[in-house]
Design goal:
The chain is mainly beta and 124 residues long. It contains no helices and eleven strands. The strands form two sheets. Strands 2, 4, 5, 6, 9, 10 and 11 form a seven-stranded mixed β-sheet that branches. It has a four-stranded antiparallel β-sheet with strand order 1-3-8-7, with no helix packed on it. The chain starts with a strand and ends with a strand.
Length: 124
């Protein structure tokens, strides 16, 4: 019954910024890992960022380090992905995902719960 809903996608110029949100509901445990993933047409889905909602610790893919920031608002049960200095190669559908398993990962196989995705388009 876990439900994840992404929002905040859109179209921006290269160098611009977007902030994605993922609202989570339908679960009782507050301890989980939340990840952001993305997939472009004809390409494999890749992990972007993950946050340990208990400690607040984060990890990022090399391709987005220094540009993207994952964060959380515990009161709203929401996670965010702040994307700055966007590049055309960031164009993709972005998904949030949740795992209640111990440990963290940017591998999609380790996340059983997924949102529907939100489109991000970056033009040059």
């Amino acid at each position: 019954q876990v439900q994840l809903v992404e929002s905040g996608g859109g179209s921006v110029q290269a160098g611009g910024s977007l902030r994605l949100s993922c609202a989570a509901s339908g679960y009782t445990s507050s301890r989980k890992y939340m990840g952001w993933f993305r997939q472009a047409p004809g390409k494999q889905r890749e992990g972007v960022a993950v946050i340990d909602t208990g400690s607040g610790a984060t990890s990022y893919a090399d391709s987005v380090k220094g540009r993207f920031t994952i964060s959380q608002d515990n009161a709203k049960n929401t996670v965010y992905l702040q994307m700055n200095s966007l590049k055309p190669e960031d164009t993709a559908i972005y998904y949030c995902a949740a795992s209640f398993r111990p440990g963290w990962s940017l591998s999609e196989a380790e996340y059983p719960y997924w949102g529907q995705g939100t489109q991000v388009t970056v033009s040059s």
